[in-house]
Amino acid sequence: MAIVNFFIHVIIMVGIYSILSLSLNFQVGISGLMNFGHVAYFAIGAYTSALLTMAGCPFLLGLFSGMALAGLFGFIISLPTASLKADYWAIVTIAAGEIIRLFFLNEQWLAEGPFGLRGIPRPLASLFPENYPIFYLLMAMFFMAFTYFIMEVLIRSPFGRALKMIREEEALASSMGKEVHLFKIKGMVIGAIFAGLAGSLYAHYMTFISPDHFMPIETFLIWVMIVIGGRGNNIGAIIGALTIESLYISTRFLKDYVGIPADILASLRMFMIGFLLVIFILYRPEGLVSEKRRSHKIK
Amino acid sequence: MLIVKEVYKSFDALMALKAINLRVEENSITGLIGPNGSGKTTLFNVLSGFYSKDAGQIFFKEERIDGLPPHEIAKKGILRTFQITVVPKRMTVLENMLLAPFGQVGEKAWRVFLTPGAIRRQEEENIKKALRILDDLGLENLKDEYSGNLSGGQQKLLSLGRALMADPEVILLDEPTAGVNPTLTRKLLGFLRELRERGRTLVIVEHDMNVISSLCDIVYVLNNGEVIAVGSPEEIQRDKRVIEAYLGGRKDAHS
Amino acid sequence: MILTQSLVNGVIRGGELALLAIGLTMIYGILKFANFSHTEFATIGAYLAFMLTTTLRINIFFSAPIAVMLTGLVAVIVDKLTFKKLRQAGSVSLMVLSIGLSICFRSSIQSIWGAQIRGYPIDIFRGMEFLGIRITPIQIIILIVAPVCMLLFHLLLIKTRIGKAMRATSDNLILAQASGINTDGVIMWVWFIGASFAAIGGILIGLETQLRPNMGFAILLPVFATAILGGIGSVYGAMMGGMILGIVENIGISFDFGILINIVGISRPGGIFISPSYKPAISFAILIIILLVRPGGIFGKRGDR
Predict the structure, then answer these.
(1) CA distance C135 to A95
(2) Which of A42, A55, B95, C274 is most buried, taking the most CB atoms under 10 A from its CB?
(3) Domain presence at residue C130
(4) What kind and span of H or E run contains B7?
(5) Cα separations in angstroms, C79 against A260, C66, C104, C184
């Protein structure tokens, strides 16, 4: 039974992180936006949904509010910065993410600061007194499929095409009439919205969140997922999430079999993540699954 | 149609454009020649909004366009090509073409979900038109090839194809035949003449005097950022100042 | 006098930031990428010194310089094994690579020494009162060591051949190569010196406060802010930027913003202060503002994007 529960837990986490990697992939892989503060949207989605539902709002309202607020923050961040160079964008987004985390950490009146929020309500918990995790798994899978669907449609559309061109040759896109600034903002906002979705799902599953869950390392983790999975490729993003999250969670159980203390195991796990990132960037930058080539079938 | 009035542009200490006055008549082909570094591409950059001018005015159909960003100028109907052809390498030839038309409804994210039917219809039309143009250019069999894998000459044709696809009123062509073999050049010239037939206006930067002579109605000669001569191709070829500017009378300096 | 205390604290912090920012800004200027693993050299230096002092029982006066040299060596090796392979890749790939490396460094250190706080095994002298300012001997050492290092580096840049080569390479890599300068060698030295300075900074921070595996990462963004404020590639900019940022940070949390409101006639008991836990947010905010308003920094070109 424990094995089954373990697998359910893994799949739920893979689902949540898939949404995160799909959303980051949309920003980085498709739109070419070097977002290194993705965890901020994750946090905003989580905290918003948690606070609203703890105040009595229904789950879906909390979910959508989390998504909306995350999207808003994405808009605020990208509005002034959309014309910055890639590496400056990276630095700015990390800084912005940290400001958000510090905000949640210090404003104790809002969200208990370092102590975090406990007792976040689980949606429809009363309907499923037993096997609740299975329900949550189905819900997580649903949202993951939903995110994938939305991303695929957007990428295949003329909108996605324009984004890709902006990623590749920004000046050319501009000279052809594409309003680059606006497209970048949209790319950022769309990615942010879905990261907010993941945050909400995370909060209601864990029932406890604190600023410690939203350190910059989370963003780097998602980056590793898309680098390994393949940037610009949605399937790759999911595979990346599957690979990393499985590795991450399963090594946690190693401590029962290997005589290494838990905290050292935790740092070894982090080392493996960093190592994978280095190896892939050096030797297989396109990732496990490379970007698909669009062939048009003519009727 | 396109009027440039007393335009100045400098980079730190370097005066790249000095008191440029230009008139491009509707439905004409205007040539822009001059030695390397005379300011031709700089002028194009100012016209298309990539550089901001220091002084002067630019009018398009009576409307001032100086100071507008590149995408705004493009939407008003002025398209430019680049001296060194730029293609989004990891996108296919067909995708390149499909990027060109203005006013695609599918480029607005929310419409992707709200009006998919309209988008699909527009896409189908655009695909048909793109394939027709590609066929004319001889690139049809490469439609699903990454544009980065094309040869230099093919990429030049593709950039022309994009321009044909967008079909703007004015096209600024920066050395359209540079590095292109004679057969392809003749093909290109054919397309350019056809564009004029359709009522379009062209401004061409060129080094090849044969191209200039066979295509252009009027030629402006630039040297050191100034217009030193204006006239028909025959007139400016005989102009002493032009000959001097090209250092010893070499009239067609192929780059 | 709270203001002078803040000023002193600010200068101390500024010295630390400057030491770490010098290497970062040089690499950024020459190799054109943001090295997110740079501050890990500070951590590595600090922990190497710790290991030498505790495990090998070498006196701190010797273990510190040795650790600094070793860290410089580590940087050179890391460059040869990783960054060098991607010289032709875009700045983004290099940046992502550096993030992976920073994770590796940090987690290795944590695996070996654990996550708990460590301290150098030397007598911690109590703070002293000096002209109304509280200061510890370590802080005085920082106030001496940091400027001395910067002075030495300045002399290196001006007077030595390698210094001139560095300046030339930093200005224009291609031109420097064309002039016959062995830019590969210069780059190696830049890594060595940059990492060594970071290690010095790390040891000083470790002496002043404590050792934690994420001590380098915690200071990463303020160091970036310093480098960008001073202008990427400008060593003197890094020095100035460090001072400015350090002082602004410290004054920012001790400044009573209530004074501004008092002018309008409203008074608020207790004053309005930025909470000290928002201290890092001050440098983040400055960082964002600089990048938006004048990305070239103090010594950079205007509108340098």
Answers:
(1) 31
(2) A42
(3) yes
(4) strand B2-11
(5) 32, 20, 14, 11
Contact indicator for B44, B80 with CB cutoff of 8 Å: yes
Nearest to A172 among B86, B102, B112 (CB): B86
* Closest Cβ opposite residue A177 in set B74, B112, B143: B74
Instruction: Show which of residues 150-169 on chain B sit within 8 Å of chain A, judged by CB atoms.
Output: 162, 166
Q: C291 and A84: CB-CB below 8 Å?
A: yes
Average model confidence (pLDDT) across chain C: 85
Phi then psi for B230, rounded to 5 degrees? -140, 140
- How high is the ipTM of this complex? 0.87
**A185 contact residues in B (CB cutoff 8 A):** none
Contact C26, C75 (CB under 8 A): no
Cβ of A294 within 8 Å of Cβ of B99? The answer is no
Cα separation, A117 vs C98, in Å, equals 34
What is the C-alpha radius of gyration for chain C, rounded to an integer number of angstroms? 20
State the smallest CA–CA distance between residue A194 and chain B in angstroms. 15
Q: Which residues does chain C have with pLDDT short of 50?
A: 302-305
CA-based nearest distance A135→chain C, Å? 36
**Which residues, 6+ apart, have CB-to-CB distance to B101 below 8 Å?**
B126, B165, B166
Choose from A104-108, A252-256, B151-155, C188-192 the range with maximum mean pLDDT: C188-192
Output Rg (C-alpha) for chain A, integer angstroms: 19
Residue A21 is predicted with a pLDDT of 94
Local confidence pLDDT in tens for the 255 residues of chain B: 888 888 888 887 788 888 888 888 888 889 988 888 788 888 888 888 888 888 888 888 888 888 888 888 888 888 888 888 888 888 888 888 888 888 888 788 888 888 888 888 888 888 999 998 888 888 888 888 888 888 888 888 888 888 888 888 899 998 888 877 888 888 888 888 888 888 889 999 988 888 888 888 888 888 888 888 888 888 888 888 877 777 544 445 444
Cα-Cα-Cα-Cα dihedral sign, residues B132, B138, B142, B147 = negative
Closest residue by Cα to residue A63 from A108, A10, A105, A123: A123
| β partners of residue B92 | B146
Residue of C77, C80, C102, C111 to mutate, testing the A interface (most A Cβ within 10 Å of its Cβ)? C111
Q: Cβ of A293 under 8 Å from any chain B Cβ?
A: yes
Residue of C nearest to A33 (CA): C92
Cα C37 from chain centroid (whole Å): 12
Total structural domains within chain C: 1
Does residue A83 belong to the interface with chain C, where contact is any CB pair within 8 Å?
Answer: yes
CATH number corresponding to B25-52+63-87+152-245:
3.40.50.300
Q: What is the pTM of this model?
A: 0.86
Among the listed residues B10, C295, B42, the one whose alpha carbon sits nearest the alpha carbon of residue A83: C295
CA A15/CA C65 separation, integer angstroms: 50
Range of the domain at C13: 2-293
Instruction: Confirm whether C298 is domain-assigned.
Output: no
Residue ranges covered by each domain of chain B: 25-52+63-87+152-245, 89-149
Query: What is the signed CA dihedral for C3, C7, C13, C19, rounded to 10 degrees?
Result: 170
Across the interface, whether the CB atoms of A96 and C288 are under 8 A apart is answered: yes
Cβ neighbours of A229 in C, within 8 Å: none
| CATH code assigned at C33 | 1.10.3470
